[in-house]
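Hey, sorry to bother you again with one of my protein questions. A protein chain has come my way and I'm curious about its shape. I'm sending you its amino acid sequence along with the backbone structure tokens. I owe you a coffee for this, so here goes:
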Amino acid sequence: MKGIIKHTLKKVTLELVYQVVDERTTELIQKIDEVKRKQEDDFRYLVQKIDNEIGSVRNEIGQLRTEIGALNQRIDTIIQMLMTLRTDQK
């Protein structure tokens, strides 16, 4: 009789342990999935932010190129004016 009770108690205890392990495993898997989703969202956000910043930098570079082109034209005009003044003085 003691053996049957002992065996039954072990079986019930093991079943409870397995049940708790299953529940805990399910909880952990859910938490891991939540972390993965958050990381994916954060990654998408960062990629979008980087893309926006790159776009801004490209726009600024384009503006600088335009300004440099205008400055080069002014320099050419000044050089032409100086050449004209020089030839007029001779």
